[in-house]
């Protein structure tokens, strides 16, 4: 692979790529994206750059706006569109080096999409959208939200913040909710994914975040992955793990699907979905029973060991195998590998958390990591891989949450609340607000009457989509702020056009707590505006006097109020290439690895907690005999707002599908490509079948990315994790049957028709989906 030293500027790089595309495509896309696009696409990109003189291009280093790995690279623009993404020097890209995934490399057509929102829309008297000036649109929003606040109180309003937006913008979303709208009901997509991780790690270790740096994935002796389709959801991390495995590390994969990482695993174990605490507790029991735990670490740095020891006694080999399908030999070999390793990293994503008992699952994992001493040392720790580009920072650290201020400071704490009341010049209710899914349940009872949804497509991402649609349609007032007229925006009274991450400046915080710069590459499209500017103008129309000149000023306010960001400023982030929190003051270097000295608990130790296990909210029955689980695929991103507008990506993955085991399919007379109807107690959808033994005979899998299938019509909005209020996306009881081709076509037509409803002919857009 050529180094940057072999290249003579951008033109040389692109010419070299053009010459080598057929014989060595790695020079353009790196090994992660090498097989993704045809050579014609690579030539097209090379030609686009080659035809531009270097001085005509805008070049800015920035942080990727897709997943939360936090890849950095240079983006090249002619001022109108993004022409190419080029990885930077290793030291300028601390997470990814010279690697990128297919989405970060090629996924920028959405910026100039024909259906990009470039002016505000308001609903006229006939119920149709029409373009409006910013003055009219902002006045409508201020009046609509203000009337509800003044008539019914701030508690009748809610805000859904955006993990796509910057840290600075999410901080202002929280400030706007509490200061201007006078509500604590603000939440974000973290509620739907890793909030159970945050709750569980917060209880046991003190910080609800990864304890490691991504470098630890490259030096760990052992890695345990569960509920993480790493190659498709976090490709760059998957490459780091695979390289470490090639160098001799052990890899344990526990998952209901035989994902690609299983091919690299020392041991792959197929588990029954919904019972993760059972097999995790089974491993913990084996380790304790055979004296394989770290006695010194347990004695000196933990409390509650006896409680855990007692709680895992019920997870005997026979019981674990009966409940989960995991054999005693598999439990024993996994336990031995973990215990023999000098350092083990425990990684997971939503397969562990998106359950009605997700917090329980993560506590079990936290116990296992702690009793084996795999915390606070190189190559060891816990790593919940985050999905949205800024869900760690914007979704958690910045406090757009119903119970926390920025930095996870409890709003019920009188001293903390007084600090923010003084800084924000307002009174703040000490009572927690509603979590995201609770907002929709409360709105159905008229307790929530207005919503302000920023960068979230709740009409597709909420569990029980039918219920969410009913709520959105019947709100007194709804404002949506986004890049496109999404499925959610079609219910709005006002739609405000936001700017994408390439059109603004700020910071993102990645999955290992690294705060990195996001730099503007091009001007906002049309009359769209960055979220922070929109929020400031709205706040001032509603009686406040915000006067920020830049997001750098917003970060200065953040670090003055948020201890873990106390030493974070734009200047320092630029100087250091990124800073990992906690970063306590302007002389602090940041924290590469948590818990090297002590834990962030009252006693400075791990608070081990014994947990049993809970059944999924619904289990298979004679009427609904199969278990549906959902997830992501490499070539799409969440609900598709960005990736559905990239032609090359759509060629590889143009629709959702259902994975069915060959034995199950044969029993129903289903062949590959056949349309299949999937039905739960809440709804149904029709998708084409993929016949594969990646899933077991009792399970089916469907991705989450397309409005036509809208798989969340089938999931449950009522049974939430009691601690974190996370919905149970990963287990739904369903039945499956063949469907005729007309049913599949009808589902596609319905998705397109739904997108068109309530838009005038001039305002209609192609199907668009927002990101959860």
TrEMBL record:
The family database entries (PROSITE patterns) matched by this protein are listed as: 4FE4S_MOW_BIS_MGD (PS51669), MOLYBDOPTERIN_PROK_2 (PS00490)
One Pfam match: Molybdop_Fe4S4
Q: Which CDD domains match?
A: MopB_Formate-Dh-H
Q: What name is this protein filed under?
A: Probable anaerobic dehydrogenase alpha subunit
List the transmembrane segments.
none
GO cellular component terms given for this protein = membrane
Q: Per its UniProt record, what InterPro entries does this chain match?
A: Asp_de-COase-like_dom_sf (IPR009010), Formate_Dh-H_N (IPR041924), Formate_DH_asu (IPR006478), MoPterin_dinucl-bd_dom (IPR006657), Mopterin_OxRdtase (IPR006656), Mopterin_OxRdtase_4Fe-4S_dom (IPR006963), Mopterin_OxRdtase_prok_CS (IPR006655), Prok_molybdopt-oxidoreductase (IPR050123)
What positions does the domain 4Fe-4S Mo/W bis-MGD-type occupy? 57-115
Q: Coiled-coil intervals in this record?
A: none
Q: Name one GO molecular function term.
A: NADH dehydrogenase activity
Biased composition annotated in UniProt, kind: Polar residues: 753-772
Acidic residues bias located where? 739-750
* Residue span of region Disordered: 713-772
Q: Which UniProt keywords apply?
A: 4Fe-4S, Iron, Iron-sulfur, Metal-binding, Oxidoreductase
């Amino acid at each position: 692979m050529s180094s940057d030293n072999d290249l003579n500027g951008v033109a040389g790089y692109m010419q070299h790529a053009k010459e080598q595309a057929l014989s060595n495509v790695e020079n353009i896309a790196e090994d992660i994206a090498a097989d993704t696009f045809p050579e014609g696409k690579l030539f097209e990109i090379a030609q686009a750059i080659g035809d531009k003189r270097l001085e005509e291009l805008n070049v800015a280093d920035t942080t990727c706006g897709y997943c939360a790995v936090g890849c950095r690279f240079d983006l090249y623009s002619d001022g109108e569109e993004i022409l190419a993404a080029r990885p930077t020097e290793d030291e300028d890209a601390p997470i990814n080096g010279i690697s990128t995934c297919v989405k970060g490399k090629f996924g920028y057509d959405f910026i100039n999409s024909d259906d990009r929102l470039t002016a505000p829309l308001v609903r006229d008297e006939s119920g149709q959208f029409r373009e409006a000036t910013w003055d009219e649109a902002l006045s409508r929003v201020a009046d609509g939200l203000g009337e509800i606040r003044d008539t019914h109180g701030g508690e009748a309003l809610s805000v859904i913040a955006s993990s796509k937006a910057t840290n600075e913008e999410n901080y202002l979303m929280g400030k706007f909710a509490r200061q201007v709208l006078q509500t604590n009901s603000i939440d974000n997509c973290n509620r739907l994914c890793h909030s159970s991780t945050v709750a569980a790690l917060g209880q046991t270790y003190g910080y609800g975040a990864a304890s490691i740096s991504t470098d630890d994935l490259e030096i760990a002796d052992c890695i345990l992955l569960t509920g993480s389709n790493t190659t498709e959801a976090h490709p760059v991390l998957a490459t780091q793990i695979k390289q470490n495995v090639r160098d001799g590390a052990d890899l344990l994969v526990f998952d209901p699907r035989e994902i690609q990482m299983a091919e690299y695993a020392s041991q792959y174990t197929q588990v029954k979905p919904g019972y993760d605490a059972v097999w995790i507790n089974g491993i913990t029991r084996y380790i304790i029973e055979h004296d394989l735990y770290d006695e010194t670490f347990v004695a000196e740095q933990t409390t509650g060991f006896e409680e855990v020891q007692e709680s895992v006694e019920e997870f005997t080999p026979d019981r674990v195998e009966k409940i989960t399908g995991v054999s005693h030999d598999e439990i024993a070999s996994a336990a031995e590998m973990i215990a023999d390793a000098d350092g083990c990293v425990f990684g997971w994503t939503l397969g562990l958390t998106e359950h009605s008992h997700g917090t329980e699952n993560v506590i079990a994992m936290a116990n296992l990591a702690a009793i084996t001493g795999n915390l606070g040392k190189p190559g060891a720790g816990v790593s919940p891989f985050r999905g949205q580009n800024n869900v760690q920072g914007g979704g958690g650290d910045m406090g757009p949450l119903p119970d926390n201020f920025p930095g996870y400071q409890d709003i019920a704490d009188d001293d903390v609340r007084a600090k923010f009341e003084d800084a924000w010049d307002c009174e703040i209710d000490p009572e927690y607000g509603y979590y995201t899914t609770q907002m929709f349940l409360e709105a159905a009872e008229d307790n929530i009457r207005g919503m302000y949804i920023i960068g979230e497509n709740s009409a597709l991402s909420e569990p029980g989509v039918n219920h969410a649609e009913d709520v959105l349609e019947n709100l007194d007032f709804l404002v949506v702020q986004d890049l496109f007229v999404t499925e959610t925006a079609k219910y709005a009274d006002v739609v405000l056009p936001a700017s994408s991450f390439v059109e603004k400046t700020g910071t993102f915080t990645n999955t290992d707590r690294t705060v990195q710069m996001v730099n503007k590459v091009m001007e906002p499209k049309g009359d769209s505006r960055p979220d922070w500017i929109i929020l400031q103008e709205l706040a001032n129309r509603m009686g406040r006097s915000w006067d920020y000149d830049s997001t750098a000023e917003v970060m200065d306010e953040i670090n003055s109020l948020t201890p873990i960001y106390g030493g974070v400023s734009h200047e320092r982030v630029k100087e250091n290439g990124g800073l990992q929190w906690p970063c306590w003051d302007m002389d602090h270097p940041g924290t590469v690895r948590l818990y090297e000295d002590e834990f962030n608990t009252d006693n400075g130790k791990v608070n081990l907690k014994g947990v049993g296990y809970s059944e999924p909210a619904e289990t298979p029955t004679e009427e609904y005999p199969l278990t549906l689980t959902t997830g992501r695929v490499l070539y799409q991103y969440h609900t598709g707002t960005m990736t559905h507008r990239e032609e090359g990506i759509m060629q590889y993955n143009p629709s959702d599908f259902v994975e069915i085991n060959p034995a199950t399919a044969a029993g129903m007379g289903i062949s590959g490509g056949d349309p299949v109807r999937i039905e739960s107690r809440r709804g149904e959808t029709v998708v084409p079948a993929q016949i594969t033994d990646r899933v077991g005979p009792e399970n089916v899998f469907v991705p989450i990315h397309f409005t036509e299938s809208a798989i969340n019509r089938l999931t449950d909005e009522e049974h939430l994790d009691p601690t974190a209020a996370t919905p149970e996306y990963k287990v739904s009881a369903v039945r499956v049957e063949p469907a005729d081709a007309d049913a599949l076509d009808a589902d596609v037509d319905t998705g397109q028709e739904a997108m068109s409803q309530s838009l005038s002919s001039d305002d209609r857009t192609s199907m668009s989906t927002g990101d959860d």
